[in-house]
Amino acid sequence: MIDALFGSKTRVKLLHLFMNNPGKSFYVREITRLIDEQINSVRRELSNMMNAGVVVSSSKDNKLYYMVNNKYDHYEALCSIFADNKTTKGRLKQSSKSGTIDGLTREVQSLQSIKLAVLSGVFVSGSGSQIDLLLVGSPTKKKVKELIDILESHEGREINYSVLSYDEFYYRLSIRDRFITELVGGRHVILDDKEGVLSDSK
User: Fold this and answer.
1) Which of 43, 45, 126, 165 could be a cystine partner for 187, CB 3.0 to 4.6 Å?
2) Which regions of the chain are under pLDDT 70?
3) What is the DSSP letter of 121?
4) Rounded to an integer, what distance in angstroms lies between the CA atom of residue 95 and that of residue 93?
5) Contact 44, 20 (CB under 8 A)
6) Which of 74, 83, 65 lies closest to 17, judged by CA?
7) What are phi and psi of 67, to 5 degrees?
8) Whether the Cβ atoms of residue 52 and residue 15 lie closer than 8 Å to each other
9) Of 113, 97, 92, 91, which Cα lies nearest the Cα of 192?
10) CB 84 within 8 A of CB 66
């Protein structure tokens, strides 16, 4: 019944794939394997979804990648129908050993010069991000290392993190840089956002 409502079985499968993987991009042959549909049908539906604004594309290593456009007017409505987890805002994993969100926030704010801190990856349920922590500001390398050492000690594993200046982050956000788009478009937890850059968009 839902196939008839949305036009085709391939389109429905694509919507399930994209809405359950916000922030993650796929190339065409990868998509055909994941949804088990013919490549011509996939290309046709991707073209339709691009024209409608549901997905966006980017090129890397001579491949064209597609990901859901979380700025699409009806994004939340589609998520409510097709996403297994109905929200793109994240929550801390129950298994995380790093403590409550308040505890993590205090640890990050101890850096003082941080304007934005975002958790993803290992810390957040449903996140497929390769980055666990993004820090935006001008913290000293020593302070960042101390924080990462604490988190790695709690988690018992290496933490993948990135530190950007505020100007660089804001520029990359404004041009829809792929790294930033995938991070903030996927499931994440905002620990601190002094400028309201991401908080205001929620």
Assistant:
1) 126
2) 1-7, 84-103, 126, 199-202
3) G
4) 5
5) no
6) 83
7) -145, 160
8) no
9) 113
10) no
Q: Distance between CA 129 and CA 124 in Å, rounded?
A: 9
Q: Name the one residue in this structure whose structure tokens are 């709690």.
A: 154
The pLDDT value given to residue 93:
57
Specify the 3-state DSSP secondary structure of 27.
Answer: strand
- Residues 52-70 have pLDDT tens digits of 999 999 888 888 999 888 7
Supply the pLDDT for residue 160.
92
Residues 122 and 74 in one domain: no
pLDDT tens sequence across 3-40: 444 668 899 999 989 888 777 889 999 999 999 999 99
Tokens of 4: 């008839």
Q: What share of the chain is helix, strand, coil (3-state, %, to 5)?
A: 45, 20, 35
User: Which tokens in the block code for residue 197?
Assistant: 């850059």
* Report field, pTM of the whole predicted structure over 0.70: no
Rounded-to-integer distance, Cα 187 and Cα 2, Å: 26
User: Which CATH number covers residue 17?
Assistant: 1.10.10.10
